[in-house]
Amino acid sequence: MLKAGVLGAGHLGKIHLKLLQQSTKYDLIGFYDADKNASQKIEEEFGYKSFPSMEALIDACDMVDVVTPTIHHFACAKKVVEAGKHLFIEKPITHTVEEANTIRDLAKKHKIRGQVGQVERFNPAFMAVNHMIDNPMFIEAHRLAEFNPRGTDVSVVLDLMIHDIDAILSVVKSPVKQIYSSGVSVISETPDIANARIEFENGCVANLTASRISMKKMRKARFFQRDAYISVDFLEKKCEVVKMKDAPENPDDFAMILTNAEGVQKQIYFDNPQISENNAILDELEAFAHAIQTDTTPIVSLGQGAEALRVAMQVIENFKTL
């Protein structure tokens, strides 16, 4: 078992502590949080060992899980990597692209594994269909949330949209060509609503919308490709796959047949992939353990985390703030 520690014991940090303790792949050593009063309460209530300093925790671990506010990611990650310890770090990987590239390069130098916590990659609905997403040419994603002061220290792009940016970059095998975007600040000092149009060199276009002041929650993405439409509901953990194939000469009475303007007939059929219940955060942590133990590239590498941040920052830079 890998000795694991957590830096940051806020809302998400407590979840990570609980799951690392449950995991059969990790031995939870303890945590460090700069808030001494909160640390004492957590130690007394849950029994997790509180370390007196970040350095003491890092020294005691094989893998360190960074779940601090984003502004502190770089300083924490740098200490972890330079100590030669494996790094799991929540999204976004760092506060700036330069910091992300530095962490990526340091990890290579010190020969450690690193994974970014892009939890939607482990959403069972997305996992059920991602192997079917083949050269999509149009993508539409909506990620809407009710207002919550937690997370408003960063733009809605880094808070919410980056989930969809990362998922889209993982299935579109082409460099980004151009980005158009707009953002509106309603309650926060940073934009609360954002829209982005990402154009790829292969012609694929992705339209993304994110809001954290909506009346209802929504996390949906739709992928359109040649002869197929794939829908993923990340919130409800459901997916739908609609495919088309050349119609048979003698279709049965219940077959759904479409005829295009050229007279070519296509048959529509539905594929309902099996969706397995899971705990996505536990799965991403254990997938990282597997990557460490087998010396393989993590599912969401530091390089991928840096690229998702680069695209997100370009979305922000291109805002036409209203």
Automatic annotation (TrEMBL):
InterPro entries: Gfo/Idh/MocA-like_OxRdtase_N, Gfo/Idh/MocA_Oxidoreductases, GFO_IDH_MocA-like_dom, NAD(P)-bd_dom_sf. Residues 3-117 form the Gfo/Idh/MocA-like oxidoreductase N-terminal domain. GO terms for molecular function: nucleotide binding. SUPFAM superfamilies: Glyceraldehyde-3-phosphate dehydrogenase-like, C-terminal domain, NAD(P)-binding Rossmann-fold domains. The lineage of its organism: Bacteria, Pseudomonadati, Bacteroidota, Flavobacteriia, Flavobacteriales. Pfam families: GFO_IDH_MocA (PF01408), GFO_IDH_MocA_C3 (PF22725). This is Oxidoreductase, Gfo/Idh/MocA family protein. It comes from Constantimarinum furrinae. Residues 151-217 form the GFO/IDH/MocA-like oxidoreductase domain.
